[in-house]
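Narrative summary of target 7.
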Amino acid sequence: MYGRDPWGGPLEIAADSATDDDRSRNLQDYDRAALSRPLDETQQSWLLGPGEQKKKKYVDLGCIIVSRKIFVWTVGTILAAGLLAGFITLIIKTVPRHHHKPPPPDNYTLALNKALMFFNAQRSGKLPKHNNVSWRGNSCVNDGKSDSSTLFKDLSGGYYDAGDAIKFNFPQAFAMTMLSWSVIEYKGKFEAAGELNHVKDIIKWGTDYFLKTFNHTADTIDRIVSQVGKGDTTGGTENDHYCWMRPEDIDYERPVTECHSCSDLAAEMAASLASASIVFKDNKAYSQKLVHGAKTLFKFSRDQRGRYSNGNEAEMFYNSTGYYDEYVWGAAWLYYATGNNSYLQLATTPGIAKHAGAFWGGPYYGVLNWDNKLAGAQVLLSRLRLFLSPGYPYEEILKTFHNQTSIFMCSFLPYYTSFNRTRGGMIQLNHGNPQPLQYAVNAAFLTTLFSDYMEAADTPGWYCGPRFFSTKVLREFAETQINYILGKNPRKMSYVVGFGNHYPKHVHHRGASIPKNKVKYNCKGGWKWRDTSKPNPNVLVGAMVAGPDKHDGFRDVRSNYNYTEPTLAGNAGLVAALVALSGEKSVGIDKNTIFSAVPPMFPTPPPPPAPWKP
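Modeled conformation, tokenized:
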């Protein structure tokens, strides 16, 4: 049978010849085929009624709508992570921990802590509450006022030089410069030892006093104070050497000595203030005050030529042999403090270096001390060449200073015979004369510092003639000298009071030798304490005594100052050497702080031109 196809062709309709069973089997096959493949959502909607369609559940979080299944998984994961973190924290807090204690301080650090205390014991004037020396009190607060001949009426403060109560400004200024230099180079080590604030207080006590000894607000001056107190005993008059009294009980006159031609003293004081200005650079107002004072002093030193000790009693105690070494030293420090090239030009003037003794040797060549600063200046200017290399016109003289530094570093080594040594190993930088330790500590500081300079400049060593030495040789020299002072010597005695178990008990020191028992002993009344064989009732902690003789012999006798008297200059060198050797060897110098005020050595290139625009 044929019908009509609506698309235009015949439509054949087959006759229904299949049985009911055949149709039933065919339907079952269709059902299995349909069930064997999944239905998409559209097909499901055809087969399922409106009430039977699957419903997805959602959670409305306000800002977004998420699937409930995803929400449950997310919240569960966060809670599980929180519980796990809490469990781990609980374990960490409840399980016993083993704290690793830091290593104990080395001997150099322990000695450093004590060496700084000596300066507290030497303070003059009204003492701060935190001075921490129980047997000291306010003293000589009227210095200046009691002398009608001086223009400077407030000279309280500063430091007593040694075992007496005289304030010698020349060695005191050198001591403050050395302390400032050690802080600039090894600030981190002072901080590690817990002594940075302490040493800065010590320096400021000195610089505050120096600002009183001249008109620090002026640009030009015609005088400075060189000394407070008197030590000449020839007349038998009561003074700081004739009398044996506690500084707190002094009732005799303390004259003020002024000088009008004292290039050495003024330049050393300028070095002291200039170096301290770098230490206090974070205190801008105080640092600028120190810089201005240093400039004024240095100008005075150049305008009014002469030796401060010429023709006065300082010649007996702290005689200056010249002032050209202070010119190089002071100018170098002023250059670092200001960045002004005129100071560098002066410090590198060959004529000044020649007069300072830079171009010939001599028995004391390379020996840094309160009188001659040439060796310190040479090291200080070698630093400039090593790290900044300023080039022309300074290179030639800086190279000379650098070579000279290398030469006197060689002279300290045991392989050479420039200086003798005692059998115990102490170098005789003053050629067997008394009070040798102050020279040894300065050399220990310079050698350690120069070694650290070379390491910071990635230089493994230096040549002594044809022979090459590594930087560690210099450090070893410094260690042998400081170890000798701390007790590794034939007498097994520490020459630093209070360090170790065996140290001098009869230190030549008025305040330490007289008991604080509310009894005022007059000028001669204190002589019994000077002459007694009993140990000092007060321990002068940290004082480095003058030291043994050239045979390693030492007499612990109060009356012999050549063995038992400490000094400011000696202890400043000790502090510098100790901090340089203390702590981790890997911690070197502060390479950049000293250059804070120094401008770039070469002019900066101009900025690139602006981009071209049509």
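The chain has 20 helices and nine strands.
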